[in-house]
From TrEMBL:
Record carries keyword Transmembrane helix: yes
Name of this chain's protein: Major facilitator superfamily (MFS) profile domain-containing protein
Chief place where the protein resides: membrane
InterPro entries: MFS_dom, MFS_sugar_transport-like, MFS_trans_sf
PANTHER family, alphabetized: SOLUTE CARRIER FAMILY 22 MEMBER
Amino acid sequence: MIPNSSSDMDGTKRKSVTISEKIEDTPKQDEDKLIQAIGEFGRWHVMLTMTLSAPIRMTAVWNHLGIIFLAPKTEFICAERRNNNETIQESECYSDCTEYEYKTDFVNTIISEWDLVCDRSWLTNFNQTACMSGVLLGSIVFGFFADRFGRRPALLTACTTQLIAGFTAPFCPNYITFTLVRFFNGAAVAGALLTSFILMIETTGISKRELMNCIVSVPLSVGEMIMPMFSYYLRSWTRYSFGLALPNLVFLVLFFIVPESPKWLISVGRLEEASLIMTKIAKWNRLPTEDMMDRVKIIAFESNVDAHKNVKATYLDLIKVQEIRWKNIGCCLTWFILGLSFYGSNQYIGQTSPNVFVAIAMAGAIQIPGILLSGYLCKRFGRRHTLIFLFILCGISNALLSVPDDWYYFKLFIGSTAVSSASGAFATVYMFTTELFPTVARNMAMGASSTVSRIGSMLAPFIAGLTATGPWIPPTVFGLVPFAAAVACFCLPETRGKKLKDHFGET
């Protein structure tokens, strides 16, 4: 409690104590007073983390990998030609073909629905490219939106867009509409992923961030594991799309339970709103709520909010501001290489089983050990050393995938190690990046990093396709680039045990 005035036992009044004087009398230490007020990871944090992480992360991986079951391997044959004098071969293209018949394990796919074969076959890959382009745009737009207008409106806008796009997809009348829907869905998924994670980490205590990060990351792998189940039982691109859209209804609950980030509110000078939200969180966590407004004022004073609240950060600040320029460059390089390496690691696992359902479920399952290991290593050794170790392990594993195919079990073990280490690195870099940047630019920094990561993922298939030129080229590239990321991580400052900064220039 911070009184304006107080009395001694004899009734004589002492002089009033201002907030600034109270702060000056308090020993300087790297403590987060906001977290002290609302708790490090109480009942409210568990509720919010589970409500956000499960639906948002699982639906995100369904969107990113959905093309696997929307456009699975499909054999075709020309059923009707204008010239019938020639023998028709299966999966052979003919310029005068007017109708195709399809053979697949599914009732229908987007390939059979819109004849995406022969001279239209490139449209299948273009659909996935459009989805990833949406992810790129969403990372940029929602990153800026969340830092300028708040985490809550950005998150709810992204979730609403994803909900609408999800239920629109099964009813698209043509390919163009379906591709546009996938584009907007990708943008919404990116926005929901970034803003939800930022909101959770800004309200989690320093000593519990690793735990929270593991809880948030595991649903990505679980979502990948259960995605084949939807496709196996639904067997139609329309029913499959509708089945994946149904869980999005959970997003409606978020309108009633997701608050604005009190850390962001304080950073922009909206102290009363921050006080009300912190009071509600403290009640949930069974902590004292007295004089919450005074605590908020102390936090604002320490962060020098009055001098910064009218300063609006932009993406240019990630380059112009010297203190974060090299952090941004290091993070972007790390994310780019990680996007490239993660694809390179996954390409082998997808080939270990002739059954696509088993292969995808396996790829999801082997990511979990890496995520859990990264949590332990981050807690024990810090973010930087954890990333360096995981990148080196991933690089060595990718390089060893060049051994002969006869070494099946060795390649399976090495491929699993590569995927697991890459997934652990992804989980770590999410947390590391949020800790490196101040509140006013945190989402934009994450958006920039996520954008270059998707560029890396989009370039990776071209590198993998160089096998025909030289079978040694893909494993060499995928094996060497993680070492460059390890060097970039070495140049970044450690953030373990440090509270999140709010503004540029804050010590």
